[in-house]
Amino acid sequence: MKTTHVSRLLPCRLLLIAPFALLLAGFSFPSAAAEMARSTASAVQPFVESNTLAGAVILVGSKDKILSLEAVGWSDIAARKPMKTDALFWIASQSKPMTASALMMLVDEGKVNLDDPVEKYLPEFKGQMLAVERDAEHVLLRKPAHPITVREILSHTSGLPFSSPMEQPTLDGLPLRDAVRSYAMSPLQFPPGTKYQYSNAGINTAGRIIEVVSRMPYEQFMEDRLFKPLRMKDTTFWPGEKQVKRLAKSYKPNRDKTGLEETIITQLRYPLSHRANRYPMPAGGLFSTATDTAQFCRMILNGGVCDGKRLLSEDAVRQLTSRQTAREIKDSYGLGFSVGNDVCGHGGAYATNMQIDRKRGLVLVWMVQHNGFLGNGAKSQDAFEEAALAAFAP
User: Fold this and answer.
1) Is the bond preceding 147 in cis, omega lying within 30 degrees of 0?
2) In terms of CB atoms within 10 Å, which of 119, 142, 238, 296 comes out highest?
3) Can you tell me the distance from the alpha carbon of 23 to that of 74, in angstroms, rounded to the nearest whole number?
4) Is the pLDDT reported for residue 24 higher than 80?
């Protein structure tokens, strides 16, 4: 699930363009707007016809509404099941900005301070050491210059590892409390604040702070404070039986690199709807749809407000979407968001992506389900973005 910036695209066969749909039933676009919307699908169509992309749901939105929503290709190639605009996708690391936004609600309420040490909220981190030498025979530890902070776990500069050895064979097999305790027992890999290293462990730790401070399970906080207010009815860690039927199949290049073959989400346990042995993963466990994801993006684009509801302060959104990594660090990252050039967003391991373009006032959502690239499939997201900007940018 290691994707820090815009996740790229992928592969497959024939094409079907599903009927154009809107968020509001019964509403139809003027013909000019409909033509603009169809142009985004036309830009993606060649990748399906060349068998390098199975299918996609593509969305363009503004602060106020959905401008374009199209489905292209197949959600199940073997069954010849057309992709539909309400298809469900594992959005993986796109969960990170959502978790960070939830934590910023507690910052807005004065219950969490970004520059507080994590150990203030999670005492198991007290005394965490830094590894300064390591080889097959020994590890030399010393006390870091300062304990890791909330800001650092949200910006991948804490020194925590990507994951812990206990998170095997999948990343969703431990209760959040136990996973975070395993991070606290691990030595830091570099002095806090001095380097960028993509870390699921950091965002998962932020999720644990949410549940300790709010005194409710992390997943309940996300549902009550973020998903329900934004009407993100299909965003969940455990897709139900009906939702699983709408889940787009996952694909990867076959062994000979001549076509696509179906695969599973290797980072997660199956069955996906089973709560007994699958646990919510703040760094990458969510499933969602294009329209749900757009609701979240529109809220960020609108400075914390969506459809008249304020969820975050303008200052919280500014901190989420502005660079938090030090200037001497190459990577530009905010709090849970990849940021740069008036664009913020995040990609997912199976090539989903969301972009919030503040300069142009647009939201771009790219939903596919691919593990790896075939041929020119990686260029399909670029083709969508170029067509979307050409059609809808002011």
Assistant:
1) no
2) 296
3) 21
4) no
